[in-house]
Amino acid sequence: MVLYESQYTSDPVPSAKEASDRSKINNLLIVISLLTSLAFLILLAAFLFYCYTRRKFKNKESKKTTYDYTLPTKAVSQEAQVFTYKQLLLATDNFSPLNVVGHGGFGSVYRGVLPDGRLAAVKQLDREGKQGDREFKVEVDMLSRLHSPYLLELLGYCADRNHRILVYDYMPNGSLQKNLYSDGTTGSPILDWPTRMRIALDAACGLEYLHEFISPPIIHRDFKSSNILLDGEFNAKVSDFGLARLGSDEINGYVTTRVLGTQGYVAPEYALTGHLTTKSDVYSYGVVLLEILTGRVPVDMKRPPGEGILVAWALPRLTDRDKLKEMVDPALEGQYDMKELIQLAAIAAICVQPEANYRPLMTDVVQSLIPLVERRASSKATRFSRFSSQIVNMKSSSTDRGSIV
Ligand SMILES: Nc1ncnc2c1ncn2[C@@H]1O[C@H](COP(=O)(O)OP(=O)(O)OP(=O)(O)O)[C@@H](O)[C@H]1O
Ligand SMILES: [Mg+2]
């Protein structure tokens, strides 16, 4: 303070040199403050970028877990429940015709009430005693250890004497087949486009689970619209997986006597050589997508020439925008999203490729369908919760694998 006063009083008028020094200092100060602001801005930008990438990464991570699957956690702890024949007689009111919910190649399916009050579908296999008691039990035990929200739960079985009966979770809305081809007399509502998309994704998740999460993989062998069952909220579950094995004669992966599966769904290489891989299921899945898209059955010889076999008729049309519009199930009355239709058609086309190696993995199909369903789910928050609430154990899914469309 004293120094300042003495300096000021001794020479109140600054010299030219001092003035130029001051202006230099001022310039320097300006430059320094500019540099500081610039550095601050750079730091701020870097921080914002860090926050942005972190959030993006977090989102990606949360998406990854949202669509992960329930692992077969009960595998070691829970075995199939064994029912006595008497218990199932009681459950189905002596297998009353009034309780029949459907008939299939393996026998009839009855609606029943289990001793604990649960509703069940009781499937009586009419190939009684074809397999040894032990072999049947081992096979069914193995199937009952698979747990996924996308697979129909096998609750138990009965192997009393010659009886071969499987007991499943009951699906009140029946099969996809029944719903797609409802003639209006069954009272089933027409499946709208968003429901069809969700069913396509659920079914793909079911197959992906069998192919990718089970070791060795389980090939369904008879994937079709009647083996996709719908619960009260039209959540789809794949059924009858592994069942075809119960009736097959097989050596080293080759079916020796006859090709199993259903006409119109069987992959060409399997039909020709009996050689079965997971890619045979992918072909059948593609046929189901075509059913969902067109509302047509896989084989219908009553249709005009060239239209009887669904795959042969549809394949060349799937990549033509105008023809694609003409193919859509008329029951939808034009109520669909064109962008989603194009994507679904692209997935179907690649799944039904005659060359097995060109077909995608089910994981790729799942990843391609997720954005279509997710878009709607996030705006409506309907079934989105289903995917997240089912998670028991996490397994890193292949979210980073490329989509096929
Ligand atoms: N768990 C279930 N809940 C409700 N309905 C069921 C259940 N399982 C089967 N059904 C009904 O019974 C019908 C017959 O089923 P099933 O599995 O025996 O034969 P399918 O799948 O139609 O044909 P296939 O035996 O040739 O494979 C199904 O189409 C479905 O409508
Ligand atoms: Mg079935």
Q: Which strand order do you get reading across the main beta sheet? A: 1-5-6-4-3-2
Helix content: 40-55%
Could you tell me the strand content as a percent range?
5-15%
Listed once per kind, the bound small molecules are: adenosine-5'-triphosphate, magnesium ion
What form results from the Cα inertia axes?
elongated
The averaged pLDDT comes out at 78
Alpha carbon gyration radius: 32 Å
Report on the biggest sheet. 6 strands, mixed
Tell me the series of helices and strands, N- to C-terminal: HHEHEEEHEEHHEEHEEHHHHHHH
Q: Under the CATH scheme, which class of the largest domain?
A: Mainly Alpha
CATH superfamily of the largest domain: Transferase(Phosphotransferase) domain 1
Low-pLDDT residue intervals, each spanning 5 or more residues = 1-13, 50-77, 380-405
How many structural domains are formed by the residues?
Answer: 2
> What's the total count of β strands?
10
**How many H/I helical runs?**
14
Q: Which architecture name of the largest domain does CATH use?
A: Orthogonal Bundle
Task: Output the structural class.
Answer: alpha+beta
